Amino acid sequence: MNPFPRVPIVVDDRPISAEAGTTVAAALVNAGVSAFRTSLGGSPRGPLCGMGICHECRVTIDGIPHRRSCVIEVAEGMRIETRG
Q1: Domain ranges (residues) in the chain
Q2: What is the mean pLDDT of residues 77-84?
Q3: Which three-class secondary structure state does DSSP give residue 27?
Q4: Cα dihedral sign for 32, 37, 43, 49?
């Protein structure tokens, strides 16, 4: 039995797998994603506080925008968008 089972997710139309129980933010960083969104001024933004306070890690999850990726666990089949 694998102590860290993996689940399939889709990030920006790219299929990857992530450890079950990890946060979306951690899964994205582990997949090499550093910019989770773009600020109104055009600057790339990513996780800062890691506990849901700063809102810099917002992504679209399963079509719902502005989800804080650092407080949501990955789930099998989850679709995550970091662009736009």
Answers
A1: 6-81
A2: 89
A3: helix
A4: negative
Helices (H), 1-84: 24-30
Which H or E run includes 65? strand 64-68
Sort 51 into a burial class: Cβ within 10 Å, 0-12 / 13-18 / 19+: exposed
Is there a contact between 50 and 72 (Cβ–Cβ < 8 Å)?
Answer: no
State both tokens at 67.
């989800």
Q: Model confidence over 49-71: pLDDT tens digits?
A: 988 899 999 999 999 999 999 99
Structure tokens at 56: 């810099």
Q: Does domain 6-81 have CATH number 3.10.20.440?
A: yes
How far apart are alpha carbons 6 and 36 in whole angstroms? 22
Q: What are the tens digits of pLDDT across the range 8-59?
A: 999 999 999 999 999 999 999 999 999 999 888 999 999 999 888 999 999 9
Beta bridge pairs of residue 19:
6
